[in-house]
Specification:
Bound molecules: adenine
Radius of gyration: 16 Å
CATH architecture: 3-Layer(aba) Sandwich
Number of strands: 10
Number of domains: 1
Shape: globular
Largest sheet: 5 strands, mixed, barrel
CATH class: Alpha Beta
Strand order of the largest sheet: 5-9-8-6-10
Order of helices and strands: EHEEEHEEEHEHEHEH
Strand content: 25-35%
């Protein structure tokens, strides 16, 4: 039986899901409220983890240990690293890596966590397929599959953006996805990241962001609801 853990960093990213959740029960751990219930008939647990890698990772571990989730989805907004990805477009992760993890002094490439067997944590192939189909249903012709780059930084300069692209070849950047990916990977739980573009991660970021944040966050939630329905079908 599938039990889907869904993590968003901000209120806008989870509020639509919580409005649509049935048989909702709330409990609090480590300062975050976890909502158990059903989404389109699928057993799910939704949590707003807060911003950044540590908040994200600890919520995944709680989802695994205390709620027994079998699959994990990270939904939210991201800055575009790809000229072909416009505001409101969707990214489905094929894998995820840190852009701010640096042990280069010891010969590791940027992003590599010493002791881990991969630089980029691979998303689950079946979840990628279902999430891509869900995204194409919500916003046809505006979805790309590729790498997500994460770090504890809101990226708002062309210089940093170019550095992240050179180091990661990612399609978009945000602040939680790879921590979620790494924690899911270590627990052997399949995951996928679904992100909608809210800004261009450059000097225009602070101008675009408030305008597009809400639209992008709600679009992602719609994709997640559609994915829940698809997972219910194969359950
Ligand atoms: N989330 C949305 N836009 C972002 C950006 N430009 N940098 C980091 N996280 C983001």
């Amino acid at each position: 039986m599938i039990k889907l853990g869904i993590i968003g960093a901000m209120e806008e990213e989870v509020e639509t899901l919580l409005e649509q959740m049935e048989d909702k029960r709330a409990s609090t751990r480590a300062g975050s409220t976890f909502y158990e219930g059903t989404l389109n008939g699928l057993n799910a647990v939704v949590v707003q983890c807060g911003i950044g890698k540590v908040n994200a990772a600890l919520c995944v571990q709680i989802l695994c240990d205390c709620f027994g989730v079998t699959h994990v989805v990270n939904t939210g907004i991201a800055g575009s690293l790809c000229a072909k990805l416009d505001i409101g477009d969707l990214v489905i992760s094929t894998d995820a890596m840190y852009h701010d993890f640096n042990c280069c002094a010891f010969g590791y490439p940027v992003g590599k966590v010493p002791g881990m067997d991969v630089v980029a944590f691979p998303a689950d192939v079946e979840m990628i397929r279902l999430a891509y189909d869900a995204a194409e249903t919500v916003n046809p012709g505006h979805t790309r599959r590729g790498r997500v780059a994460s770090g504890d930084q809101f990226v708002a300069s062309g210089e940093l953006k170019d550095k992240i692209i050179a180091n990661t070849q990612a399609l978009c950047t945000e602040m939680e996805g790879t921590a979620i990916a790494q924690t899911a990977y270590r627990n052997g739980v399949p995951f996928v990241i679904i992100r909608a573009i809210s800004d261009k991660a450059d000097n225009s970021a602070d101008m675009d962001y408030p305008t597009f944040e809400k639209i992008a966050a709600h679009r992602c939630a719609a994709v997640t609801m559609t994915l829940a329905a698809a997972l219910k079908e194969i359950n």
